[in-house]
């Protein structure tokens, strides 16, 4: 709506204000109220700029880690009264962000309707001869570049001969124990 008022204000030298308001379907009183509030808007903008400077100083002093709650606490510490939502708005407008700890998000969400995978070894992790049972697991770790997927498998009962799969950033990698190059990795075949 303020764009219409700005247009009326810019064109008032060429046409009467009443005519511009009638053509644009704007009440004249609304335009005059907007024009009277210009000084208040400028004062609010300059106050926001001063607050943004203080926020930037505190944010840089915290090594760019403080977000809205801590900036709000730091500004209130010397007794200054400032609204938390105003701080959030000023930080959002100037793209000032703190470091947040993300909640742990599980990447594996089982389908409730799907049938579970069959337990082929019936939870019996003992093998009479090495090389008859193969078990494995996969885990993921957060890194600066994204999630790191780590999978490993081992023959039972020789748990000391665990051989990891290649480390990848794609969970659906085409590497399997059968496509992994076994030579030169320290893998021992049971004799």
Task: Describe the fold and architecture.
This protein has helices spanning 2-11, 17-23, 28-36, 38-61, 68-76, 84-93, and strands spanning 133-143, 146-156, 163-164. The N and C termini lie far apart (84 Å). 7% of the residues are buried. Strands 1-2-3 form a three-stranded antiparallel beta sheet, with no helix packed on it. Mean pLDDT is 79; it is low at 178-191. α5 packs across α6 (84-93). With 191 residues, it is an alpha+beta fold. The chain is elongated, with a radius of gyration of 33 Å.
Amount of helix? 25-40%
- For the residues shown, what is the average pLDDT? 79
Tell me the fraction of residues in β-strands, as a range: 5-15%
Specify Rg, calculated over alpha carbons.
33 Å
**DSSP helical segment count:** 6
Helix/sheet category: alpha+beta
For the largest beta sheet, what order do the strands appear in spatially? 1-2-3
Q: How many DSSP-defined strands?
A: 3
Note the run of SSEs as H and E.
Answer: HHHHHHEEE
Poorly predicted sequence stretches spanning 5 or more consecutive residues = 178-191
Apparent shape: elongated
Largest sheet: 3 strands, antiparallel
Give the N-to-C terminal Cα separation.
Answer: 84 Å
């Amino acid at each position: 709506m303020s764009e219409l008022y700005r247009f009326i204000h810019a064109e008032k030298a060429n046409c009467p204000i009443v005519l511009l308001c009638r053509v644009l379907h704007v009440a004249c009183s609304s335009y005059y109220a907007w024009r009277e509030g210009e000084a208040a808007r400028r004062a609010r903008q300059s106050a926001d700029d001063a607050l943004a400077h203080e926020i930037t100083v505190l944010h840089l002093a915290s090594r760019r880690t403080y977000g809205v709650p801590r900036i709000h606490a730091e500004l209130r510490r010397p007794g200054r009264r400032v609204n938390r939502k105003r701080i959030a708005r000023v930080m959002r407008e100037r793209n000032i962000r703190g470091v947040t700890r993300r909640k742990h998000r599980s990447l594996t969400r089982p389908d409730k309707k799907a049938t579970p995978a069959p337990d082929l070894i019936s939870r019996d992790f003992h093998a009479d001869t090495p090389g008859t049972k193969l078990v494995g697991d996969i885990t993921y770790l957060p890194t600066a570049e994204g999630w790191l997927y780590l999978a490993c498998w081992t023959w039972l009962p020789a748990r000391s001969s665990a051989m990891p799969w290649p480390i990848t950033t794609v969970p659906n990698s085409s590497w399997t124990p059968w496509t992994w190059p076994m030579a030169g990795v320290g893998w021992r075949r049971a004799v």
